[in-house]
Amino acid sequence: MIVTLTLNPAVDISMTIDRLVPEHKLHCSQPQYDAGGGGINVSKAIRRLGGQSLALFTVGGASGHTLEALVEAEGIHHQPIRLSGLTRECFVVTETTTNQQYRFGTPGPTLTPDEAADCLAHINRLDPPIDYIPVEYVVASGSLPPGLPTDFYAQLARKAKAHNSRFVLDTAGDPLRAALEEGVFMIKPNLGELARLVNADRLEMDQITEAATQLIRQGSCQVVVVSLGPRGAMLVDAAETLYVQAPPVRKQSTVGAGDSLVGGMVYALAQQRSYADAIQLGVACGTAATMNPGTELFHRADVDRLLNWIRQPYPVESM
After folding, report:
1. Model confidence, pTM
2. Catalytic site residues?
3. Torsion over CA: 204, 288, 264, 272 (sign)
4. Reading across the β-sheet that carries 241-244, which strands appear in turn?
5. Element (H or E) spanning 17, and its range?
6. pLDDT tens, position by position, 170-196
7. What's the structural domain count of the chain?
């Protein structure tokens, strides 16, 4: 069983326009609505690969009902966490003349102390309860909404370990640092985020293994997956470093690419596949997500085609 958690989800609204011009009335394309937020995107990725997960996410108001309907349409098992505030809406606008993408994100509702406590307790109130069906992976992805303490993910990591679940965390800043003090199974920083975690100004490719190993040796995590954008991704654990190059594709949008990488990896690992298989599938999913406009994520056929490219002639480069 895989559980994903999205504490600050959004209704993602994407559209195209010829060009953004200030102080003019601009005519956009018909908007596309998608369920957004890190954990929800991970669940969407797992579902598109043929798997299933349980998505937990906060909802509130009319936009929350829209979000629920969008998740339902994806065929994802889900349990909403009710809030009094409105679920946020985020906007992605792409200029057709330049292919430049503009993202407009809103902070989300501020949680009351009771709502904050309910978010943490909700994982123990799964239907059926977590004590009766073991959860192998808990995936938390995305930012914390206003009102949640900085150590919220650290508290969740503690609960996951108490239930012998592997906690996968994809976030940044102080909430990530606090969780690493507690210890997690896997994180997915980009190169800049990894540098900040080891107090470095910047990192080059040949310094990734040393930086990731530093986190692993101090007990912060067991696996570090470093997202390298169009260059692919690198996986580091205590035994090895694996690098997978991303296939060259025509990029339309990067929204959800990192979440697709995480979803592909967790899906593979939950099937007891190797780290090499997992990073290959993750890079294929992340790359395929960039091939589609707006917030559409990936198509399975694209993943299969890119996976064949990744596996030939050298499936994984050990470093």
Report:
1. 0.92
2. 259
3. negative
4. 77-82, 54-59, 2-6, 137-141, 166-170, 184-187, 221-227, 233-236, 241-244, 317-318
5. strand 10-17
6. 999 999 999 999 999 999 999 999 999
7. 1
